[in-house]
């Protein structure tokens, strides 16, 4: 590895500066992405290893020397597809035939063979690792069971999550059984990604914050733990070295202390609604942290970006040192960002997160 800052920070080590990447870093804010997208459907790109590799590399090429990780181009919704559901992207996700009642669970495939259904992601990962040639580490990912459950039940994005919450309240046992079924596919899928070459795994629980704390604890946390434990034990069984695992439970800052202690993840991702120093106080030195600039800061102009980055760095540093911190936004980058403003974010990050830099 020419640049292993990400892996060192994930292990909680001190780094010369904070490794930085951004969620959705290969996406619509990049003209080179839009140009590929003009002639290819979203899921067609995901399923074509040459295209997925090309797009994964786009931000790495554009920001050479400024960006410290790549993330494989794919989507969390490939798991519902692998379980037999149709998913369209027009322009947001749309499931023509969502799960309306527990009887619909019977429509899902019984034994999902991840090599057969998701082998295209494994191919893309292996191909991307080769193309990266050790430049930066490659992150693999999947959606958390609760977040995927919401899409499978609502049939797309939802503001209220009315259907999903009705499921939890009316059919708690059936909901839990479905969540476990999704989790078991996640485990196989993540293990396959490591075998294919992924060097760190991130689980996106983007809908975690929609649940009351006691419902998050009852419905999401057990499957998040099942995934971290399941991936670790399967890798150990096959004598494959463990990789660091990141949990991004957006909106679940109330649970940070518990998650640091009991979730089995090495890194916890933060959204922008918690002060970094407060998050560090809650988790102690049990885990590394990732985050957490408000993505809309990138619309504030260069001066504001610099000011906010400097502030974030001061809040994440412990005793003036950068240790166990992976810098990122608090959620995905949005399509209207000027790529040059993102470059400026990366430049400011290198400057202000350096351990040597005066605060
Ligand atoms: O981070 C990366 O660059 C890797 C690729 C990646 C995508 N989606 C590509 C994508 C990752 C890690 C995701 C995760 C994902 N997908 C999440 C979890 C993270 C989050 O944002 O909360 C969720 C909830 C999804 C589901 C999804 N996919 C939605 C809601 C949408 C539409 C809204 C949007 O932001 O565009 C997508 C589409 C999608 N996934 C695009 C990209 C680049 C844009 C699609 C297009 O090109 O038309």
From TrEMBL:
Residues 19-28, 139-155 form the Uroporphyrinogen decarboxylase (URO-D) domain. NCBIfam families: hemE. Keywords: Cytoplasm, Decarboxylase, Lyase, Porphyrin biosynthesis. PANTHER family: METHYLTETRAHYDROFOLATE:HOMOCYSTEINE METHYLTRANSFERASE RELATED (PTHR21091), UROPORPHYRINOGEN DECARBOXYLASE (PTHR21091:SF169). One of its GO terms (molecular function) is uroporphyrinogen decarboxylase activity. It catalyses: uroporphyrinogen III + 4 H(+) = coproporphyrinogen III + 4 CO2. It holds the Pfam family URO-D. This is Uroporphyrinogen decarboxylase. Its EC number is 4.1.1.37. Its main location: cytoplasm. Catalyzes the decarboxylation of four acetate groups of uroporphyrinogen-III to yield coproporphyrinogen-III. Pathway: Porphyrin-containing compound metabolism; protoporphyrin-IX biosynthesis; coproporphyrinogen-III from 5-aminolevulinate: step 4/4. One of its GO terms (cellular component) is cytosol. Belongs to the uroporphyrinogen decarboxylase family. InterPro entries: UROD/MetE-like_sf, Uroporphyrinogen_deCO2ase_HemE, Uroporphyrinogen_deCOase. It comes from the Eukaryota. The keyword Lyase applies. Homodimer. It is found in: Cytoplasm. One of its GO terms (biological process) is protoporphyrinogen IX biosynthetic process.
């Amino acid at each position: 590895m020419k640049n292993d800052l990400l892996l060192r920070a994930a292990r909680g080590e001190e780094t010369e500066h904070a490794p930085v990447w951004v969620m959705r870093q290969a996406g619509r804010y990049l003209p080179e992405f839009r140009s590929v997208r003009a002639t290819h459907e979203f899921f067609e790109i995901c399923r074509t290893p040459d295209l997925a590799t090309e797009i994964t590399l786009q931000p790495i090429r554009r920001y050479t020397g400024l960006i410290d990780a790549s993330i494989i181009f794919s989507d969390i919704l490939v798991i519902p597809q692998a379980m037999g559901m149709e998913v369209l992207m027009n322009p947001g996700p749309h499931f023509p035939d969502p799960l309306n009642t527990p009887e619909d669970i019977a429509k899902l495939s019984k034994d999902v063979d991840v090599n057969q259904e998701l082998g295209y992601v494994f191919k893309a990962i292996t191909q991307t690792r080769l193309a990266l040639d050790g430049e930066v580490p490659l992150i693999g990912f999947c959606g958390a069971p609760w977040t995927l459950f919401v899409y499978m039940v609502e049939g797309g994005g939802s503001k209220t999550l009315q259907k999903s919450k009705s499921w939890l309240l009316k059919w708690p046992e059936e909901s839990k059984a479905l969540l476990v079924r999704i989790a078991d596919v996640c485990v196989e899928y993540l293990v396959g990604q490591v075998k294919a070459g992924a060097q760190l795994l991130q689980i996106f629980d983007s809908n975690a914050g929609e649940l009351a704390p006691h419902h998050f604890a009852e419905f999401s946390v057990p499957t998040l733990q099942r995934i971290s434990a399941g991936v670790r034990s399967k890798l150990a069984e096959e004598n494959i070295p463990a990789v660091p695992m990141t949990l991004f439970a957006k909106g679940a800052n109330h649970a940070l202390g518990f998650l640091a202690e009991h979730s089995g993840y090495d890194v916890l991702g933060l959204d922008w609604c918690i002060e970094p120093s407060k998050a560090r106080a809650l988790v102690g030195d049990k885990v590394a942290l990732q985050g957490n600039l408000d993505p809309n800061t990138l619309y504030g102009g260069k001066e504001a970006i610099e000011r906010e980055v400097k502030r974030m760095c001061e809040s994440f540093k412990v005793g003036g040192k950068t240790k166990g911190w992976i810098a990122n936004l608090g959620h995905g980058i949005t399509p209207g960002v000027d790529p040059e403003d993102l470059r400026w974010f990366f430049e400011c990050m290198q400057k202000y997160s350096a351990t040597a830099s005066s605060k």
